[in-house]
Amino acid sequence: CTAAFARTFVGTPYYLAPEVISEKPYSWPADIWAMGCILYQMCALRVPFEATNITGLAQKICKTPAPQVSSDYSSAVKDVALEMMQRNPGARPKADAIINKAFIQDVVKALLGEASKKEEKPKAKYEVMDQFQRFDQNGDGVIDRPELARVLKHLDAKVWTDDSIGQIMLVADTNKDGRIQFDEFLQWIFGPGDKDGRAGVASRVDQLITLANLAAEHEDIDDLLEHLLGWRQYVDMGCLRVLPPEVCTKTCEALAWLCISSRTLLEGAPLPKAYNAARQIRAILQVVEQLLAESSRQHVQRVGAVASRTALKGFCMERVDGLRMATSLSEADLSSSTTQWESLRKGERVVEVRGSGLATGTSSGRRPSPEDDNIAASIVLLTNQGRTLEFGSKLGSSQGAAFSFKAKNGEEIEQLKFANKTCTGINAAPVVVNWTPEQVKAVRNSFQTVVESFWPLLLDLGFKMGSKYGNYALLEGRRLGLNLAPPAGEVAVASGAAESPSHWDLAVMGVLGADGVPTKMVAEVNLGQMEVRRLQQLLGATFRPDGAKNEGP
Asked: What is the pLDDT of residue 220?
């Protein structure tokens, strides 16, 4: 509605304001009157002014006092209804004054909160799907016991025994068919009928944290070790990856307190048990470190293409940091209105590409020539959220041989390769977590706090177990930026080997391909002679050969 006064006679008669009926100029206060009438009708289930004809209705609206809302409703509702149906237009409140009333703000916040939960639920489901696919190695849509055992025993065969894997199957496989379907995995993570995300794994981890603190308070090393093992197993199953980053922050804060409260217990307990407890803390922290490393990696935020009715002329995938992986498109092309851009939603990633190359002898309706720069007939991108993004020709006459490429579980497509008028392959990268800079900062700060309190304890226990244990802890601590020295009387690893090699990237360690083999091997990295010597020093100082006793982590 403009500021100009209207003189037209429109609207439902029951909601007409007195000034409209009196044929006086009217503006927004007439709408406020109408809203007051609607509010009254919602409460009373009848209109505020009733009559058998239009003349009688006009008399009541202009002369009869506005009725009050029933006392069954709050005084705030009654008052605002009367304010909105003031006969004097200038006495009626403006829309922003009504919206800013405290009781209305409370309702608005509640509604927005519910909407936010509904919006977050599908996002959480997609994140759980990513974790599910890490275990579903053959891609058949279910996790069987061998798949679960293969991944978990790769993480730590000492922790993941047949009994502990069987316990996970017992709890998660609710229909007892020997396999974990996605819905069962989702229920195991969030709990049945969950509304706030805390009836599942998060709630059980909270219980384990409480029990671990009680065990430290009671100086019971066996209970402490048991609860740390349970806590670590939930982390291995992916709880920190699928739950909000605040859970990582809380995990680090809980571990920092536990390190302080249990130090005396661990220093006086039998050494193997004490070191085993420290190993579980270290394993949990390694997962947090991995998530922090992933949070710093850039992911694809949108894809763009230039296409005609019969062919795809160029294609681009753009990362969050602005880097563009483009084929046959210049920066001018990408900035022009001819480029069709599609933005990816939060947590959405491209995981598969399908399409068709250009038909032999056909390119934009003519025979191929050296000047022809079209790259394919069409492409269809599939995302982890079930969305399809289509670019290029839909005409069968221009489409040649089909192509199809899919990223491995735990990866996303970040570039398409084109040659000879078709897509010839993809470049994929490990999936990243979608944390805001503020969330990353909070997790990083809490992580730094706990490593500073925990690593001196780990170092002390490590050297008591043996030089290789201690030197490995020393290496890890220095990699994390800690200024550490071995306990008195212990000899540290040579300085050249006490720094992690430059090719180390914790974020990709432990990520398995469909065949159960890590996706990144040292053999894939070009190592200089000095790097090889440093790696040999590192292995000699920190790892024990197979069959060795009492040495090496």
From this structure: 94
